[in-house]
Amino acid sequence: MEYNHKHNTTLEKLEIIYYFTQVPVSLYSNNSPVVQFPEKPLSMDALLKNECEFPNIIFSRNQTFTCQFITNDYYECFIVYELNDTDVIIIGPFLDEEMYDAKLSTLIKKNTLSIKLKHKLMDYFSKLQILDHTKRFYINKLLNYLFPDDSSIHLEQNTSTDTSEKTSVPENYFVTTYKNRLSMFEHPPYYLEQVIVKHIKNGIKPNARHILSEINSLNRAKLSDDPLRSLKNSLIGSCTIFTRAAIAGGVTDYEAFNLSDAFIMEIEKTNSMSELNNLEYRMVETFIEKVNEAKTFKFSPIIKNTMLYIVNHLSDKLTLKDIADHVYVHPNYLSALFKKEVGISLFQYIIKKRIEESTYFLKYSNESIADIAAFYQFCNQSYYIKMFHKYMGMSPNAYRQSNN
Q1: With a cut of 50, which residues of the chain have pLDDT below it?
Q2: Contact, 68 vs 60, CB < 8 A?
Q3: Measured between alpha carbons, how far is 92 from 41 in angstroms, rounded to an integer?
């Protein structure tokens, strides 16, 4: 099959993007790959042997010539750029920040992957490019330059040399705006969102509840034809905003994102509109409580940073020297300061946190005790069981049985 000149030009442009970004670039037509640079790009789907031609991502359709930044459940990032109703450019996977231990552990838990995959996953993520906001901005500019919205790009076999037809501008935005105006609907004012973010960040519960009530007195955006699904989508968006506000208020990203994941799972399981509305208030209050808890910690900046580093590397090998290097102090000084401020030794704290986090796999997975012990860097299964009993008051098997 001989493709037209526009097709060949499109492929040349894709190759330019690939060599500019060093990130995989693929062109899909009707969800099937037409061309890929490199020929077999890395992906979690390939790593996990998921047989699917199209990447594991969800994006808004009919947004032609608009860059969409997408993150999937594996923390892989993609830039999606629709050319028309059948053809789409996908740049990725890449990362928006370096993959660290705590984030990888969350990924394994969220996607119910085997903990034996940890090193394989870390090796995979170490090979992905990291594109920050600035780099993504320039990729957006490059795409808009190479594929202006007045170009007519189709990948079917060429039967005509007429290039006068123009790709129509997507009408979804205008249709949605028109419908919203007919129903006298407007999105909640941006300033109200900023006010509730401020109250969460500052840990002011009554004021946050009041603003949320004011927002909810307005009609919600229609995010799905199904009212229940629309409300769930709205609450997931709210949860994302509350999570970022809590992190700005001093909650560790690890704790905030874990809380966010728990709320999103609860949103998905809840099928009552009234219960979902109440859940939104509970989300606000819980995030504010976490902010206030973070403020009550009277630890010095060195100890706070030490704790954060430990929580983010619980399934990594941790040495006193590595931790001390991270907070720029001598190991002996850190050890003495930690014991003085926290009341237990640094390594007692590490073991306690590892035991607490390991309970997730006992509750929600069938991983063996030996594999869980190895994942959290315990020297052997017996020592893990001994420490588990010390901090939890029972054996790992007893804990698993009591939570099943």
Answers
A1: 1-3, 151-152, 156-171, 173-187
A2: yes
A3: 9
Looking at domain 301-402, its CATH superfamily turns out to be: Homeodomain-like (1.10.10.60)
Helices (H), 203-318: 205-216, 227-248, 253-269, 273-296, 301-311
Half-sphere exposure of 239 (CA within 13 A, CB side): 25
Tokens representing 190 are 């941006």
| Three-state DSSP class for residue 250 | coil
Q: What pLDDT, on a 0 to 100 scale, did the predictor assign at position 179? A: 45
- Domain ranges in the chain are 5-146, 184-296, 301-402
What pLDDT, on a 0 to 100 scale, did the predictor assign at position 180? 45
Phi–psi pair at 158, nearest 5 degrees:
-80, 125
Q: Is 94 helix (H, G, I), strand (E, B) or coil?
A: strand
Residue in 301, 345, 352 with CA at minimum distance from that of residue 327: 301
Contact predicate 302/329, CB 8 Å: yes
Give the span between the Cα atoms of 404 and 388, in whole angstroms. Answer: 18
Number of H helices and E strands in the chain, helices first, is 18, 5
**Alpha carbon distance 56, 49 (integer Å):** 12
Q: What is the CA radius of gyration of the chain?
A: 25
User: In whole angstroms, what is the distance from residue 246 CA to residue 202 CA?
Assistant: 9
CB-CB contact of 387 with 355 (8 Å): yes
- pTM summary value: 0.59
